[in-house]
Amino acid sequence: MDQSISKRHASLREAESKAEQLFKAIEDQGIIRPDVTEKQINREIYQLAFEMFGIKKYWHKRIVRAGKNTLFPYRENPPDLIVSKDDIIFLDFGPIFEDWEADFGRTFVLGDDPAKIKLKNDIVEAWDEGKAYFQSQSAITGSELYTYVSHLALKYGWEFGGPHAGHLIGEFPHEVIQGESVENYIHPDNHIPMRNPDSNGKPRDWILEIHFVDRKLEIGGFIEQLLTVD
């Protein structure tokens, strides 16, 4: 592997490892709990991230969604909810570690509702299936991977909840460098092979997102992490 690529992957891997540590601390400290608002949980996570890693900068808005708000994709801004005692909650945070971006999402279930627990487990299995499919297809396009993971939602008995299934990740600010066109997303209209380099000949690395929902039950589950860096 080219030395610059190896260094890039090591930096992305380290950023995600720190994000994982943050999420474990969130769970261990009981920050995800009932009778507080999504915004309160968000503030507490921000403070914890600062205490653990000195993080003040995030490359996208910090998301805490509970209950029926878990139906909404990233670009929506639903009203602030109070977490209930048997709720489903997901977090989507994009912290920046020494100018390298992480993008990490996880789902939590309070209580023992079987549908919510199934949803939490299904998205993890679907993410693993999506990665395995990506690895098995050397010339896969964003459109093809989106189609595959959206069909996984049906396989598990859910609906796919997002307009895309992931995006580029890299050195901050990747959005300025790469732009907002569909070719930079795991999107149904992206027909460019995902392993193609960018316009400057540099490698592109991807985040895979799984967002399954049940609109009747008003619940959703979300997971995301690095796809192209082991």
Can you offer a commentary on this structure?
This protein has 230 residues and is of the alpha+beta class. It has one domain (3-226): Creatinase/methionine aminopeptidase superfamily (Creatine Amidinohydrolase, Alpha-Beta Complex), CATH 3.90.230.10. The protein is 37% helix and 19% strand. The protein contains 5 helices and 9 strands. Strands 6, 7, 8 and 9 form a 4-stranded antiparallel sheet that branches. Strands 1-2-5 form a 3-stranded antiparallel sheet, sandwiched between helices. A hairpin with a 4-residue loop joins strand 8 (205-214) and strand 9 (219-226). Helix 1 packs across helix 2 (38-53). The protein starts with a helix and ends with a strand.
Total domains: 1
In CATH's first tier, which class applies?
Alpha Beta
N-to-C CA distance: 14 Å
Largest sheet: 4 strands, antiparallel
Name the CATH homologous superfamily: Creatinase/methionine aminopeptidase superfamily
Helical residue percent band:
25-40%
Predict the CATH topology.
Answer: Creatine Amidinohydrolase
Keywords, separated by commas or semicolons:
230 residues; alpha+beta; Creatine Amidinohydrolase; four-stranded antiparallel beta sheet; three-stranded antiparallel beta sheet; 5 helices
Question: What is the secondary structure topology, with strand pairs?
Answer:
Layout: H1 3-28, H2 38-53, E1 63-66, E2 88-93, E3 96-97, E4 100-101, E5 104-109, H3 114-136, H4 142-156, E6 159-160, E7 166-169, H5 174-178, E8 205-214, E9 219-226
Antiparallel strand pairs: 1-2, 2-5, 3-4, 6-8, 7-8, 8-9
